[in-house]
Amino acid sequence: MSTEANEFVEVMTMATVRETERVGSPVRVESLRSSSPLRRWRVEHSLTLAIASLMVVTAAAGLFIDGLYKDGAWAREALRGGDLTTVLLVVPILIGAMLLSVRGSRKAQVVWVGALAYSVYNYAYYVFGSAFNDIFLLHIAVLAASLWAGALMIANLDVSTVAAVFPRARGHRWVGAYLVLVGVVLGGLWTTLAIRFALTGKLMADIPRNAVHLVFAIDLALLVPALIVAGALLWRGSSAGVVFGAAMAVMGALYQVNLLVAGVFQASADVPGAKAFPIEGVAVAAGFALASVYLLAQGARDQKERSKR
User: Fold this and answer.
1) Entry pTM
2) Which residue pairs, CB below 8 angstroms and at least 24 apart, start in 171-174?
3) What angle do helix axes 170-200 and 209-218 make, rounded to 10 degrees?
4) What DSSP assignment string belongs to 197-223?
5) pLDDT band for position 273 (cuts 50, 70, 90)
6) What CA dihedral angle connects 294, 295, 297 and 299, to 10 degrees?
7) What is the distance between the alpha carbons of residues 82 and 258, in angstroms, rounded to a whole number?
C-alpha cells in the first residue's frame, strides 16, 4: 500500500473513533491495538521494571534491617507498613498491569498509571519526610523513575481510545462525585487545621509536627487538586475524566491499604493515638476499592460484549 493510502486509512480510522465516541456508540478498539505505542517496548517499560525491582529491594531493607529508619516510632512504623503494602500488593499490580498493557489491554494501562501515581505519592514521603538513612539514594531513584515513567506513559497514552473501552454509565458520575467529595473533605480538613494552628498554635495530637507539615504540603499541593479535577472530569463524562478518574481511584485504593497496614504497624508498636483499621480509614478504602472495581468491571463487560458481535 502506498504512503498516501496508509495516511488516508489512519486519518479515517481516527475520525471514526471520534465520531462514534461523540454519538455514544461502542467503538471497536481491538483493531487499533496493534498501533498502540504502549504495546511496543519503550523507556517507560524499562523504567517500570527498574521501579518494581527497587521497590522490592527498599521494602525488604525497611522490613528486615533493624534501625534502618532513624525516625520516631510514628514515622518509622508508617514507613515499614508502607514497605509491606508496596512489596506484597503494589509490585504485583504494577508488573501485571504493564505486561497486560503490552498484550493490548487498555484497562491495564489505566491501572498502570494509577500504580505509578501511587509510587510517586508514596515515595515522596520516604524522600522528603524520613530521616537520612542508608537507602536514601534508592528511594530517590524510585521517586525519580516513577515521575519519568508516568510522564512518558501519559505522553504516549491515547486517551480517547482508552476511554472508549469504558462505557458511559450513570455510575461514573457517582464515582466522580466520590473523588470530588474525598478531595474537598481532605482539603477542607487540612486547611482548617492549618488555620487553627496559625491562630492558636495547636496542631494534631500524637503526630510529629514535621510529619503533619509534609502531609499537608503534599496533599494540598498534589493529591487534593488531582482528586477534584479527575472527579469533576469523570462527572462530566469526558475521555480524560474516564481515564484519569479511574487511575485516581486505583491510586487511592492502593494508598488507603498502605495507610491501614501502617496503622497496624503503629498500633503493634504502641504508638500513641494509633489504631488498627479505624472505621473512617476502612470506609474510605472501601470506597476507593469499589470505585476501581466498578469502573474496571464496566470496561471489561463492555469489551466482552463487543467481542461477541
Assistant:
1) 0.83
2) 171/294, 171/298, 172/234, 172/235, 172/237, 172/242, 172/245, 172/295, 172/298, 173/234, 173/235, 173/237
3) 140
4) HHHHS---TTS-HHHHHHHHHHIIIII
5) confident
6) 160
7) 5
- Residue pair 183/228 in contact (Cβ under 8 Å)? The answer is yes
Name the amino acid, one letter, at 244: F
Cα 139 from Cα 116, distance rounded (Å): 14
Rounded CA-CA distance 95/39 in Å is 14
> How far is it, in rounded angstroms, from Cα 166 to Cα 171?
12
203 φ, ψ (degrees, to nearest 5): -125, -140
What are 79-92's pLDDT values in tens digits?
999 999 999 999 99
Lowest mean pLDDT among 11-15, 31-35, 236-240: 31-35
C-alpha cell at 159: 486517551
The three cell numbers locating residue 292: 476501581
CA-based nearest residue to 43, from 136, 127, 150: 150
Number of residues written out for the chain:
309
Q: Please give the angle made by the CA atoms of 122, 128 and 132, to the nearest 5 degrees.
A: 115
The answer to whether 114 and 248 have CB atoms below 8 angstroms apart is: yes
Q: In whole angstroms, what separates CA 32 from the centre of its chain?
A: 26
How high does pLDDT run on average in the chain? 85
Residue 11 to residues 1, 4, 67, 249: CA-CA distances in angstroms? 15, 11, 60, 33
Q: In the predicted model, is pLDDT for residue 7 greater than 60?
A: no
